Amino acid sequence: MIAAAGMGALVFWPFMPEFQIVDVTDGRIAWCARVRAGEEMVLAFTHSVNRRRVFDTLRVEADHLVIVSSRFDTFGAGMPEASTRDGTLRVREDGWLEWTVNRPVPEITVRVGRVADHALSYRGREIPLLSLAEPGAPLSLRVRNSSVLDYMKGRCTP
Q1: 3-class DSSP state of 5
Q2: Residue range 115-124: mean pLDDT, rounded
């Protein structure tokens, strides 16, 4: 009896981390994947002013994301121009600029844009955010714990 209760708790208890992209408007999980602490992914977008691609590296931690760095090839409005107490700017060997911040955040909300052409690169896959929501829709990127039952339902990418 106790073993059965323990197994039941194991099936329903949320303890397995997953990365989720959630439509903030209705709470629907638009995309998710099982993750491990330390895994990284890249959120790419086109800068609204200079129209150049920006690549933000995100790292998964147990219950949150860390904005590791931003990589870009030219300056633009809102882009860092020098190192500060918030982050370090350096020129990489390939000529790209890299702004390293290592900032922990509970989640990141992005308004899906046509011009921005947001895309998430994860484990060799590229997920265009426009394939998950309409332009202008707010999508939240976050890490949450899920249960074995959630995975058995096939909700997330392995």
Answers
A1: helix
A2: 94
More confident residue, 156 or 111: 111
List, in order, residues 6 or more apart from 26 with CB less than 8 Å away. Answer: none
pTM of the model: 0.83
Domain ranges within the chain, ordered by starting residue: 2-152
Residue 9 has pLDDT above 70, yes or no: no
Q: How far apart are CA 17 and CA 65, in angstroms?
A: 12
The structure tokens 């194991």 sit at: 10
Instruction: Give dist(CA 47, CA 98) in Å, integer.
Output: 15
Q: Is 109 left (phi over 0), alpha (psi -120 to 50) or beta?
A: beta
